[in-house]
From TrEMBL:
<dbReference type="GO" id="GO:0032259">
    <property type="term" value="P:methylation"/>
</dbReference>
<keyword id="KW-0808">Transferase</keyword>
<feature type="domain" description="Methyltransferase">
    <location>
        <begin position="45"/>
        <end position="119"/>
    </location>
</feature>
<dbReference type="InterPro" id="IPR029063">
    <property type="entry name" value="SAM-dependent_MTases_sf"/>
</dbReference>
<dbReference type="Pfam" id="PF13649">
    <property type="entry name" value="Methyltransf_25"/>
</dbReference>
<dbReference type="InterPro" id="IPR041698">
    <property type="entry name" value="Methyltransf_25"/>
</dbReference>
<keyword id="KW-0489">Methyltransferase</keyword>
<dbReference type="GO" id="GO:0008168">
    <property type="term" value="F:methyltransferase activity"/>
</dbReference>
<protein>
    <submittedName>
        <fullName>Methyltransferase domain-containing protein</fullName>
    </submittedName>
</protein>
Length: 227
């Protein structure tokens, strides 16, 4: 299996296992807590997945409106975030329909989700990028986009022209770019190959096994805009 969308629709446990091995040094948590004031804030999170990003701030936030277009992922997020049920409202929403929500937030955050829409939108990529920027800016004063700058690579770079365009547009529209490492760590290279390969595909799996890697580098970009 290597189709990410199949994972999102049917294999949330596998996705959750993958991200539970990511960022073993806790750099995302440190960054988000050192740089963002979450206390008493109303947060809108898009493409919440199984709740890995939300776990970093939910203790402090006042309320979270959590969105994803996969009910299957939302169900896993509900399980993972059950301790905070009282302050989370879950909704199925496609990122292309941001314009339909009436809520506004103190903070909007998304992790590794908007990039999918940007990559898929071959016909209207520039408009999609502007749409994601303008619809989030209308709805929050502080906006945080988290996206990949490469998996199993030696230095941070946008993986491909399509995401490169997206990241460039963020900076041109007032977002400040930060780069952190969120490396994966597994007990052994066999587990690393199996779990990483199930999500990223066979060439990732073969590379990890051939190099016997149990730590896999991941570079992560965090773009923040304060209106
Ligand atoms: C790589 S996962 C990231 C999940 C979570 N933010 C995290 O950091 O683990 C991408 C998530 O975005 C969701 N997603 C993908 N395309 C989407 C779209 N067009 N609209 C809404 N959600 C989408 C998927 O269902 C999945 O939960």
């Amino acid at each position: 299996m290597s189709n990410m969308f199949d994972v999102y629709q049917n294999f949330s446990d596998l996705y959750d296992e993958l991200v539970n091995h990511e960022d073993y040094e806790n750099n995302l948590y440190k960054f988000l807590n050192d740089n963002i004031q979450w206390e008493n804030k109303v947060v809108g999170e898009f493409g919440i997945g199984t709740g890995r990003v939300s776990r970093n701030y939910i203790d402090k936030a006042k309320k979270l409106f959590a969105y994803d277009n996969s009910q299957h992922m939302l169900d896993k997020a509900k399980e993972n975030l059950s301790k905070w049920t009282d302050k989370i409202e879950y909704s199925v929403l496609d990122n292309s329909k941001l314009n339909t929500i009436e809520n506004t937030f103190d903070i909007i955050i998304e992790g590794w989700s908007f990039g999918h829409l940007v990559v898929q939108e071959n016909e209207n990529r520039d408009q999609t990028i502007q749409y994601l920027i303008s619809e989030t800016k209308k709805r929050a004063k502080e906006i945080i986009f988290i996206e990949t700058l490469g998996t199993n690579v030696e230095s941070p770079n946008p993986p491909g022209e399509k995401l490169s365009k997206f990241y460039q547009a963020l900076v041109e529209n007032g977002f400040k770019e930060h780069i952190i490492q969120t490396d994966y760590k597994f007990n052994n290279y066999e587990d690393a190959g199996k779990i990483m390969g199930a999500f990223f595909g066979d060439s990732m799996k073969n590379d990890i096994i051939q190099k016997q890697l149990n730590v896999i580098k991941e570079y992560t970009g965090i773009w923040i805009c304060r209106n």
